[in-house]
Amino acid sequence: MDSIAVQEMLADSLASDGVIATWNEVVRPVLTAVAARWQLSGAGVEVEHLLNECVLAAFVRATPLVTLGRNHRPVLLACMPEERHNLPLYPLAAELAQRGVVVRQLGAALPVVALAAAVRRTAPSAVVLWAQLPRYADPGVLTALPRTRQQVRLFVGGPGWRRGVVTTPAERVDDLADAVAAVEGAVT
């Protein structure tokens, strides 16, 4: 429950090891352990919430403002409708921004109507949709997105998609490094 110590550790890791290593080697193992403790004992949800807030703040701080990016059309990052676990989108946004990619973070539980409006308004080069839980990995959302004059690459990520059907033209990304590589390929 020491948010200052957590913030310092995250800042040190981000500075020395970068976004992807910090996410994979520090954040994910700790959050997994805290969640396992909670499942076994029912205790520690306050620790998980504190960690989530610290991680979110650290990755937001690690995300530079990109005014003149490599991409002329932004990349949209959003959760599937009703999906509230948006934390993994923050390291993705941070790593892409550090690589000069313009990103628009749309956050958790974005209604499909709002997602469709954002796609129409921005004509993005890519869209990444996150589903932590399988019940939110709805392929109908993918087919409901509007077509734009310019091609939009559509990616889905998160454990919710592992067993779900991913309809064409969407592509599954399996982890943070895979998502970064896929999005970079879409914007070049």
TrEMBL record:
<dbReference type="InterPro" id="IPR036594">
    <property type="entry name" value="Meth_synthase_dom"/>
</dbReference>
<protein>
    <submittedName>
        <fullName>Uncharacterized protein</fullName>
    </submittedName>
</protein>
<dbReference type="InterPro" id="IPR036724">
    <property type="entry name" value="Cobalamin-bd_sf"/>
</dbReference>
